[in-house]
Design a protein that fits this description.
The structure is a homotetramer.
Chain A (H helix, E strand, L loop, with lengths): L11 E4 L21 H10 L5 E6 L7 H10 L3 E7 L16 H21 L3 E4 L5 E2 L7 H18 L5 E4 L8 E2 L4 H11 L4 E6 H6 L4 H10 L3 E6 L17 H13 L6 E3 L8 H21 L2 H9 L3 H13 L1
Parallel strand pairs in A: 1-2, 1-10, 2-3, 3-4, 4-6, 6-8, 8-9, 9-10
Antiparallel strand pairs in A: 5-7
Helix pairs in contact in A: 1-2, 3-4, 4-5, 7-8, 8-9, 10-11
């Protein structure tokens, strides 16, 4: 295992969407004004805590890759990854698993474009978040077909670019009631079926939590399979993807997640996936990072030999004591 | 108890929003094209199954009350109620419980306007769905203040119009993570504190279900307190307000809900609260109504004396048998 | 408001059940050996952190009230309250709401006995936890009858003893799938209907959490109505009454709960409701108390003026910052 | 695909536990009297609807395999499978994943014994339900070690008996808060890692439902991987393993599950996993079977060509209509 970074050297990335206009089905006029692609980059940089950005593609009309590159450079940010928008109106009933071949082809084509954009921006990977790939009602789809489309769609893109890394961000539901890439294990099982080596998993703490996983265990599993591509953090009430600030509710489980992040020697930025509907996104980022730094500093205090001994004995009360002492002295 | 209507004479109403453009935080370009106020009325009528419509107010720019009245009349629909939009950007952090007095005043004023509109359209009541009244994070609000604003805000409007009926549609969460008007009991308790007689409850089957209530029990409670104002139906996976077609998943609990609807002698239309993101709204209405009619026809087959005897003995297996027999012969 | 006790002076009570043999439907031979009534008192005292005990009644065969009194005295413990066992085999289908009058009478009689035992032991109140009062299946019970029995059963006992305090511990479910005394608001509404002044609410942090309430808000509501009788703490995964050690998972919400405990000037011991299936109960108590003391010490650091200002503005990010700073410096 | 059996020829099996004394942490005196091994067989047969029984091993003290064989024969029942009790006090902190080698060895030895018992009784397979294999608290275990023990423990038994079939019944939680064999996908992924061919999955409708899967999809996945060993049915409120009668709540999803049971040509008995705490177990079995027969008869009415066309188009409203028509004509 590589040596873990100190909490001081831990870096953070963000999602472009956290800085844009958020909208939902009730506040259809948005929770704030329209904010363009380039402005989100400025705002992300202004948070003062981010080194990189997860970028949705396509960008705004009229904004080219070179414009984005220039904005990132100007603000000292990198593109951590490109996330093609395979979940808007065009793909409302599925992207790679859409019912008609033309939609599946459109998803494929957008993915191909995203590979080019990622290369142009020097992004580490292309992320798929297939948020419309699934179904809503019993009896709505044929499951073998859904599985086949899901696996083949990703595989076909990945095979075309054996040197590019692809990460799938799983989520139990929303906007579909049932998503195909639902849990860490379901996704790893399907990824194995792609038969390619360059597709892996993005483990989002919040997605894991409301999928009824323990996020630290899911992260450990993804790492062990050699398929871990990225790590995202946020928080929620265990039932929905609330995208609250990191550590807002689940400090112990966030601490354990960061402990595993350290144990596996994670060297890339940890990404924040926030939806600050009513908050200033800069505040939400800073508050999250401050909490994560405090927690990682506590994680560094954990007496690892004692902890491992307690874990070898499944000794919950000793583990709790060590955690409490690390947190509160 | 008044004699229950036969299932043949049961009528249904809908929500204007089911026929408009639905949008969410991912498909920010909407699940379909823009649809104006008057067109939603046309589409609602075209479903062929509705006698009335729950109308959000304000209407589209340029559409007056007289226009809406004319459209309703032309299509043979009534306005069941007016629902002021106290949950858009202006009220994103609360309407009657907003932090600043100006926002609370704006909510009050919009409610007052809605009373006028309801009168002009002959609507039976004004509905409040205070979907932004609550909070997202622990420590975010002072609970006594939140309660006071919630109760006083509604009370002040209701006192001004003692002859007008107001109904509060409770919901556990969304878009806020925690809503004040959360459950049937929490809402009835707060309504008691208003000290007025003309405020009651809108019981939505789906809201009740994911608030971890049994909808039939919640409906019975609201009726018993004399505070039942309206009844809405839909379905979900018990964790979120999915607004699926009625009976899509929970046939037995929908049947029990309809059984209570009959037992209490409900005479008004039963309202559908659907969000057909990817479906034709007319189809969603027709499918819901067909299921509800089938279920009510089965509810009418329940041998009430035997059922009451089983219930008096808390005899679940006999009750199940009677239900199964009513459903499947 | 009375002045809040310092965290140093905060005292804790426990539940007798935490020290006895725990059993469940799978480990039907129990998670440990049989432990008698008097031995649980010894073990509770030996934890070194408790001043009082919630005692289930009846005691073991052959153990009299005087024996219990002597054991409590010998170990320097008080009986905080008596909890009649209205949820064992005899009451498996309901106690005060049981289908037959004889069962309801038996519940009444056991409650009456418990009043005597409470008096003999100097307990502050009699607690009802009506864990079998509810139902499991749709259509199983008639809701108006269930409500009537629930309210009248408690009322009849309370009326007989106007100088005795009774507390109802609400819980959403378990062992019944649906319990009558389900949420804080549902219980307060029903308590109002008893028409008596000496019945109130026991707010258990864990029960509140998995009833999808925010425990701090529920506690504040119970206090405001003048119906708060006792306060219990523990933790769970928000879906079931796991009865884990306090603060094991939800540190921020436990902190907020303790903040309200302080704000309302709570002077009685805070009670632990733990089920340490596989852990030493003394360890579980000590670990819980250590966490609660650490959290209360942090609660005492909260800058109340700043917090109130943030809450008046519904300013989540400032509230989060104050909480984080209190927790981690 | 083999031709599906008609609903008339569908047979059912039960679990021995449904007919024995049920106990839980509150009714520690049990929901009824003690009932011995041989008596449960009698009662199962007396239900009149079962052809086989899932048998927990060890049997009661003094009851030998020959006694059980004789009782089964006398009542015309078969042993569908043997389920070693790897979840009682001895294994309270884990069986194959227990912290100490002696416990893991004990689990192995009991599994070996169960193989012999299964052979003696002619059972089709040995079922593992590792209900204590997991953890309760964050930081309690080392996840790589847990995974290794879980996989190796099962593998070692299976390798010793390449001609014996083993089935793992997954469950998200209970009695542990977090179980290792949690979901269909997590279990299939781990089963792949055993590297043996004779270990598969038992898909329980209720377990799948509260693991937030769609049971029909989970069943389809298990079948497709060639790892489906058995199928169990029951119902619950989607949050816990309530083990209600089949179809008590989720008729549509139960119908879809039965539809997949038919599509995959399942020929073995469908097993009921019920915990009739307060009901007569014979009634619970008969009510479940009657509902399942009614639903399978409706499943047989589904127009498969139309359904497949709707599914190919992801056409939820048409699928709903076909389902409704099959259910209600």
């Amino acid at each position: 295992m590589t040596s873990a970074p100190s909490s001081a050297s831990r870096t953070f990335a963000g999602g472009m969407w956290s800085f844009g206009r958020i909208i939902d089905r009730y506040a259809t006029d948005g929770y704030g004004p329209e904010i363009g692609t380039l402005r989100t980059i400025e705002l992300a940089a202004a948070s003062g805590e981010l080194v990189g950005l997860d970028l949705n593609y396509p960008f705004d009309a009229g904004v080219g890759v070179a414009d984005v590159k220039a904005a990132l450079d100007a603000h000292g940010l990198v593109a951590t990854n490109i996330t093609p928008v395979i979940y808007d109106r065009r793909f409302r009933s599925g992207s790679f698993t859409g019912a008609d071949a033309a939609t599946r082809r459109a998803a494929h084509d957008l993915a191909e474009e995203s590979v080019d954009v990622a290369a142009a921006l020097g992004a580490r990977y292309v992320k798929f978040w297939p948020g419309q790939d699934g179904y809503d009602y019993p009896f709505q789809v044929d499951y073998p077909t859904l599985r086949r489309h899901a696996v083949e769609g990703i595989r076909d893109v990945a095979r075309n670019h054996p040197d590019v890394t692809f990460g799938i961000e799983y989520k139990l539901k929303e906007p579909r009631n049932r998503l195909f890439w639902s849990t860490a294990a379901a996704s790893l099982l399907a990824i194995e079926r792609t038969g390619v080596d360059n597709v892996g998993l993005v483990v989002d703490f919040g997605h894991s939590l409301f999928a009824k996983e323990n996020p630290a265990e899911a992260l450990s599993l993804a790492h062990e399979t050699g398929r871990l591509v990225d790590v995202e953090v946020d928080d929620n009430y265990r039932e929905w993807d609330d995208d609250l600030t990191a550590g807002a509710l689940h400090l112990v489980e966030t601490l354990e997640f960061l402990h595993v992040v350290r144990e596996i020697g994670w060297q890339h930025p940890v990404k924040l996936d926030l939806f600050p509907y009513r908050e200033d996104p800069g505040d939400a980022v800073r508050e999250s990072v401050a909490t994560l730094r405090a927690l990682e500093e506590r994680a560094a205090r954990l007496p690892l030999d004692e902890l491992r001994a307690a874990q070898a004995a499944h000794d919950a009360m000793t583990a709790q004591r060590l955690v409490r002492t690390a947190l509160f002295g």
